[in-house]
Design a protein that fits this description.
73 residues; alpha+beta; two-stranded parallel sheet; 1 helix; 2 strands; 11% strand; Luciferase-like monooxygenase; Luciferase-like_sf
């Protein structure tokens, strides 16, 4: 039986690096639908099978003063 590899892209607003939000020209892109459309089109050109967008794409009531740092309390 042949095995298949399915590719998925997990879209996040600033990536996984704690300082990733600083690397974007516009750090508010994660609330702009065109940001997600662009990533989906790139994934489609790369023959990815799916695009995952987390169900927490919303702004918090009180935005953090600085980005999240893993391991900090």
């Amino acid at each position: 039986m042949a095995r298949e590899l399915h590719l998925n892209v997990n879209v996040t607003g600033s990536g996984r690096h704690a300082g990733g939000w600083r690397a974007q020209d516009d750090p508010t892109l994660f609330v702009n639908i065109d940001f997600f459309r662009h990533i989906a089109r790139v994934a489609e050109r790369g023959t990815f099978d799916s695009v995952f967008i987390a169900d927490v794409a919303a702004l918090p009531q009180e935005p953090p003063v600085e980005p999240y740092h893993p391991g900090s309390a």
